Amino acid sequence: MGLGLAALLFVSGCSRAPAPPSPEFEQASRRWTALYAQKLDAAYLDPSIGEIEAQLQRVPADSVDSAASQSLLQRIQEGRTRMQAAEEEQRRAVASAQTLPTQDPSQTNFPQTPEPVAAEPADAGPEDAGVIPGPQVGTPVTEVAAGFRGCFIRFVPLTVEGRGMRETWQLSDRASCQMEFPTHRDTALVIEDGRVLALLPKSAMRTVRRYQDGGTVPEDGGR
Predict the structure, then answer these.
(1) Is the pLDDT of residue 144 over 60?
(2) Phi/psi at 157 (5° precision)
(3) End-to-end alpha-carbon separation of the chain, Å?
(4) Long-range contacts for 154-162 (Cβ within 8 Å, ≥24 apart)?
(5) How far apart are CA 220 and CA 223, in angstroms?
(6) How far is residue 185's CA from residue 205's CA, in Å, rounded to a whole number?
(7) Any residues with CB less than 8 A from the CB of 186 and at least 6 apart, and which?
(8) pLDDT (tens digit, 9 = 90+) per residue, 7-20?
(9) pTM of the predicted model over 0.85
(10) Do the Cβ atoms of 189 and 143 come closer than 8 Å?
(11) Could you please report the per-residue DSSP string of the chain?
């Protein structure tokens, strides 16, 4: 029994303890974790990945980190292969999309692009037509009263046949107004529903005297 115990002690004393943790693996693992957290799968194609692989390959085979280093090294290599294949496939897809067909569309099933038709310019009216200054048909009466440099003032009410009594405005006799709005001289602006209904020459207006009995007589005496 004493000899057996001695032999057991002898065998136990000859077994080697595993090597301590590898600093190379610790550094490589830390660098890989930080790189992947920053770039995700793009980390497999990062230029610095070669240094990480070199560190993993220097981990001693008898180190407690040997298996982990080989596993990480294999993961990096497989990931790089996968990303390179995806990158190549994307490059081919882009190149294919940029390639134009060289066949004659009339002889193939390629759709023909219709030729653009030049749009006709909009009719701008006569060449000598320009913007006429001053109120026009449709101008709001509020604008007539407040705008145009205050050059338009109220005129006498006017009875429009078929429409009844209507408000009218006329151009002020101030010299500056007469010069700025010459087309509105001797013109009455007939207002209806808050807007200019018509520009009526004063020469077309007829003054009628109305008597208390309802009768009317033109100023020219009915001649």
Answers:
(1) yes
(2) -60, 150
(3) 164
(4) 155/188, 155/189, 158/188, 158/190, 158/200, 158/205, 160/190, 160/192, 160/197
(5) 6
(6) 14
(7) 201, 202, 203
(8) 444 444 455 666 67
(9) no
(10) no
(11) -HHHHHHHHHHHHHPPPPBPPPHHHHHHHHHHHHHHHHHGGGGGG-TTHHHHHHHHHTS-TTBTTHHHHHHHHHHHHHHHHHHHHHHHHHHHHHHHHHPPP-S-GGGSSPPPPPPPPPPPPPP---TT--PPPS--TT-BHHHHHHSGGG-EEE---EEETTTEEEEEEEE---HHHHHH-GGGTTEEEEEETTEEEEEEEGGG---EEE-TTS-EEETTTT-
Amino acid at 44: Y
pLDDT of residue 2: 45
What would the pLDDT profile of 17-41 be if each residue is shown by its tens digit? 666 788 889 988 999 899 899 888 8
| CB distance 144 to 187 below 8 Å | no
> Beta-carbon neighbour count of residue 129 at 10 Å?
8
99 phi and psi angles, rounded to 5 deg: -85, 120
Sign of the Cα pseudo-torsion (140, 192, 194, 150, in order): positive
User: Which tokens go with 160?
Assistant: 């429009």
Domain residues of the chain, as ranges?
Answer: 20-96, 141-204
